[in-house]
Design a protein that fits this description.
Elements (H helix, E strand, L loop, with lengths): L2 H10 L7 E5 L3 H4 L8 H5 L8 E4 L1 H7 L8 E4 L1 E2 L12 E2 L3 H6 L4 E6 L6 H18 L3 E5 L10 H13 L4 E4 L5 H6 L5 E3 L8 H13 L4 E4 L1 H4 L4 H14 L3 H11 L9
Parallel strand pairs: 1-2, 1-10, 2-3, 3-6, 6-7, 7-8, 8-9, 9-10
Antiparallel strand pairs: 4-5
The chain binds ribulose-5-phosphate (5RP).
């Protein structure tokens, strides 16, 4: 890896422990103004100080994130299909690498839909994006997306999708936690971070998933809805940080969440 690319990657995966707590808030690119992300500026403001990196589109960066914010950007650069369209997998690259450079992105992120009708198209998107990233020194996060086919989230499928994503040159991979996750990580030669998926019934469940993922080899989390759809988003991201960076157990993280959500502690920055 060239120096610039390694340097950018180290802004996302912290050099002290190689781990990261990314905050995913790119959902509007296919979901529109989804619950609790109607006004990204308001949602993100209290959370940014606790995020190792922020995953958003260029539209949200420019309109909702202060240019003086000291948070590395992982810029979502794929899209083009929405929940209203025929197929969420029909994605193209939506942002030029030059714009990622202009925005001082630390990495760019793109979804691949392995096994879908758009497998070849989205894997081609990834390969070309990696080529462009290497030219300018920007690492690529490959997202193994499943669209509406949530049943695809098993270890056999995710191991295939993660490995293919890494083979095509992604510098790190985002996927889902699943039973047998250890094998997914073991078969992927680059760091793996997990998405949270739809909001869990309670924060304990999401913290348990994060804990298990870290125990089974994940390099961090890139969660969205389970943070900003929580009744106490700041407490939630701080509890996740305890798991990822401070070796907290799931129970210790739950206790921290309970402590931080007490009146007076809410939205502590
Ligand atoms: C969509 C994404 C989202 O950023 C991802 O799903 C993470 O958010 P959540 O934790 O809400 O699932 O990459 O493809």
């Amino acid at each position: 890896m060239d120096w610039g690319l390694r340097n950018r990657l180290s802004r996302v995966l912290r050099p002290e422990d190689g781990r990261t707590v990314m905050l995913a808030a790119d959902h509007g690119y296919f979901l529109g103004p989804t619950h609790r992300l109607e006004d990204p500026r308001e949602t993100l403001r209290p959370l940014i100080p606790f995020a190792d990196a922020l995953m958003v589109t260029r539209g949200v960066v420019r309109s909702c994130v202060d240019a003086t914010a000291q948070v590395p950007l992982v810029l979502r650069v794929s899209g083009g299909s929405t929940v209203a369209g025929p197929d969420l997998a029909d994605e193209v690259v939506t942002t030029a690498m030059e714009d990622a450079v202009r925005l001082n992105a630390s990495a760019v992120a793109l979804s691949v839909f392995v096994g879908s009708a758009y497998e070849r198209q989205t894997l081609g998107n990834l390969a070309r994006l990696v080529d462009r990233g290497l030219e300018v020194g920007i690492p690529v996060l490959g997202v193994t997306a499943v669209g509406k086919e949530l049943e695809k989230r098993d270890a056999r499928y995710l191991a295939l999708a993660c490995r293919v994503t890494a083979e095509l040159g992604a510098h790190f991979v985002k996927t889902y936690f699943c039973d047998g996750f250890e094998a997914v990580v073991a078969g992927c030669p680059v760091p793996v971070v997990i998405a949270g998926g739809p909001k869990s019934d309670n924060e304990r469940d999401a913290l348990q998933v994060a804990y298990r993922a870290m125990q089974e080899g994940a390099s961090g989390v890139d969660m969205g809805r389970n943070v900003w759809q929580s009744t106490h988003p700041v407490a939630m991201i701080r509890a996740l940080r305890a798991i990822v960076h401070e070796q907290a157990s799931a129970q210790e993280a739950c206790d921290l969440f309970d402590e931080l959500r007490q009146p007076g502690q809410r939205q502590v920055v």
